[in-house]
Write a structure and sequence with these properties.
With 69 residues, the chain is mostly helical. It has one domain. The protein contains 3 helices and no strands. The termini are far apart.
Amino acid sequence: MKKSKFPKGWDEKRVKTVLAHYEQQTEEEAMAEDEDAFMSRTRTAMEVPTQLVSKIRELIAKNKASQSA
């Protein structure tokens, strides 16, 4: 059997916890969670052309790196 690879800071327990959260959510709870995410004052959501996604990810990574330096 193939061993699972997890992102940095994640393990099987964390994955199972997140899956359980979303599998047990009611539709109303899911909608409220989505609405809360869009009400954030520190983040924004926008539609961008697919070909720009990699460049945007690079900018976000550079921004995070400069903030932690």
